[in-house]
Amino acid sequence: MTLTKNDTHRALLLMTASATLFGLMAFSAKVASQRLSGPQVAMIRMAVGLLPALLVTRWRRAAMHFHRLDLILYRGFFGGLAVMLYFLAIQHTSVGVATLLNYTAPIWSGIFSMLFIGERFSARVLIPLPIALTGIVLVVHAHAAPGDVLGFGRWEIVGACSAVASGIAVTAMRAARRGENSWSVYGSFCLLGMLVNTPLAIANWTTPTGTEWLAIGATAVFAMGAQLLMTFSLRWVDAMTVGVISQLAVLVSMALGALFLDERIVLMAAIGAALTIGGVAGVTYVNSLATPRSAAAVEVVPEA
């Protein structure tokens, strides 16, 4: 397929809008989880996300068509676990820090793909990887509480674990990418994600107020919109471009947190965020050099 300039421009606009919506989703989830639990917000977000695959016959049939059930289950379970951990981190830390930690997932997916499915490792990844890790330490240290180790408290560790779980989910998707359609992958993500979040959601259920329902609804709508726009843009955008633009979600969530939730951005955190985003983009670039464009592009955005 020959790409035109209009195709590229449209894809870049869609990808930018998608990353912005992912940032808005994180902010809405933070607003909703001021009183509600993160898993409760995540469960409802997943349930709403599942609706297109249930209500549209063509999409429902596609979601039921798969070849490797084991990989679909791995992807759905660990993707749902990643979202639960991410929303827990959003609930208990600043939305900017939680999003930054979650968006380090490409580091882990690259490592796991090398270890478990035989993808090639490039020594060049050793240049951006320490930069990203240094940035993470700076960001969490800037928000550290007394007693935290290197700035990492319980919920910062949970946020980092969300990236690890996302990396596992993406590795399963990479292994399955030649045989599974996007709706089977998406449907398993929403269904199993809803089930993973349900126990903690029910155990800590709090009936939302009208304002909280609006925040939950915004979280679900922003997530669906972001995912759809990303899907539409992937056929025209390479992995490196997706990896860089997706990091806009971190900046959007940080800015909204600072503007509306009084989450301070100190100089150390700003420098750390820049290093992390640059390092993750570098890791994405190095990994994309040995990966087919169409496959790589869908695999560099964390679970949200």
How does this structure look, described?
With about 300 residues, this protein is mainly alpha-helical. It has 14 helices and no strands. It has helices at about 5-30, 40-55, 55-65, 70-90, 95-100, 105-115, 130-140, 155-175, 180-205, 210-235, 240-245, 250-260, 265-290, 295. About 55% of the residues are buried.
Short description:
This protein is mainly α and 304 residues long.
| Average pLDDT, all residues | 86
Rg for CA atoms: 18 Å
Distance between the termini: 30 Å
Strand fraction equals: under 5%
- The coarse silhouette is globular
List keywords for this structure.
mainly alpha; single chain; 75% helix; 304 residues; globular
Helix/strand layout:
Blueprint: H1 5-32, H2 38-55, H3 57-63, H4 69-92, H5 95-102, H6 105-116, H7 128-142, H8 154-176, H9 182-203, H10 210-233, H11 239-246, H12 248-260, H13 267-288, H14 293-297
Helix pairs in contact: 1-10, 1-11, 1-12, 2-3, 2-4, 2-9, 2-10, 3-9, 4-5, 4-8, 4-9, 5-8, 5-12, 6-8, 7-13, 11-13
